[in-house]
Design brief:
199 residues, mainly alpha, 63% helix
């Protein structure tokens, strides 16, 4: 492969190995990613697909960028839903209508007592905590108040800010990833066919 890359404290990757071509700019890590996580993704893809030529290596590097963007937008989409669900739980306790869709508001019954905001907030936090015991407790509290979690999830999807944009990005990028994988497989098949041609 010619001159080796100089020793560096940064993790090596397929992308860095082929950086000397200057076909793709050096990637600047984004603030919210763990150090080395993108390089681990590159290594995993390189191990899974075993690129053999320069072009195949660069195609896998591009595929890693696409996969990274898919995961980023999926995380942002899910975070927007979780953030909205937190407020939907609290609104359900108060009986406040937060959706223009009447069929999604049937459980938001008028309360004859003052809402327990502290309990509502704790229930919302427990529901989104990721802890099985806390999630189960939150579901029990919601059920005790005749609040349908599935309806709250539907509301969260409808009212989450940015959900649609990130979901569209995931769909678009997933299609791009599929086409890139098809291109890669076609290139590999052609290369292997040529390798077996008689001299």
């Amino acid at each position: 492969m010619g001159d080796q890359m100089p020793n560096s404290s940064k993790p090596t990757s397929v992308f860095q190995t082929f950086r000397k071509w200057e076909l793709l700019p050096p990637r600047v890590p984004m603030p919210d990613e763990l150090h080395g996580s993108f390089d681990k993704l590159l290594e995993a893809l390189a191990e899974a697909f075993s690129p053999a030529t320069d072009y195949e290596h660069l195609l896998i590097a591009q595929l890693a960028h696409v996969e990274w963007d898919i995961q980023r937008h999926a995380s942002m989409r899910d975070a927007s839903i979780r953030g909205r669900l937190f407020h939907e739980v609290i609104d359900a306790f108060t009986g406040q209508k937060t959706s223009n869709f009447e069929e999604l508001s049937r459980e938001a019954k008028p309360r004859t007592h003052l809402p327990d905001v502290e309990l509502a907030t704790k229930t919302a936090r427990d529901l989104l905590s990721g802890n099985k015991a806390e999630v189960a407790r939150a579901k029990k509290v919601l059920a005790g108040r005749d609040i349908d979690l599935q309806i709250l999830l539907s509301r969260a999807h409808l009212n989450a800010s940015g959900y649609g944009m990130h979901d569209e990005k995931v769909i678009k990028l997933t299609g791009q990833r599929r086409r890139m994988l098809e291109d890669f497989q076609r290139i590999v098949s052609a290369r292997k066919a040529n390798e077996h041609e008689p001299a």
